[in-house]
Design a protein that fits this description.
The protein has 152 residues and is an alpha+beta fold. It has one domain: 3-Layer(aba) Sandwich (Aminopeptidase). It is built from 5 helices and 7 strands, in the order βααβββαββααβ. It has a 7-stranded mixed β-sheet, with helices on both faces. Strand 4, helix 3 and strand 5 form a beta-alpha-beta unit. It is globular, with a radius of gyration of 14 Å. It is an enzyme of class 2 (transferase). One of its GO terms (molecular function) is N-acetyltransferase activity. InterPro entries: Acyl_CoA_acyltransferase, GNAT_dom, NAT_camello-type. It comes from Longimicrobium terrae.
Length: 152
Amino acid sequence: MAATQWTLRPARAEDLEAVLRLTGDAALPGDGIREGWGDAYVVATDGNGVTGVAGVEVHGCAGLLRSVAVAPEARGTGLGQALTRDRVRWAREAGLDALYLLTTTAENFFPRLGFARVERADAPAELRESGEFRDVCPASAVVMRLVLADGG
């Protein structure tokens, strides 16, 4: 599939079940997606359905990039990068200072998009107290940060 064959758009209510399947197939936690569903999520479609998703949970002045998932047939097309860049843009427009993520499998993917590994303790308290940090992702998950605020 060529990168030009998918389109990014804001997630809609009718996309939720497809997104939950997609994140489940990618072995990503689905906890909190339903509760946080809204304009903080973007989906990619290819004319046959949802082929990718990414979202941001807002915690104070920081965001948590989550649920970046791409269907197997769309991997290697640049879709994961496009979804991530779209959510970085969204986070900047929302006025967030930084975007964090937790990963157990994609530590080598995110640095090319500007994310750097940090210690768990470096994340803001509001973020560390989120369900994703506390309950969903294991303590072994790598924490990464992209500073969005000017001068940071």
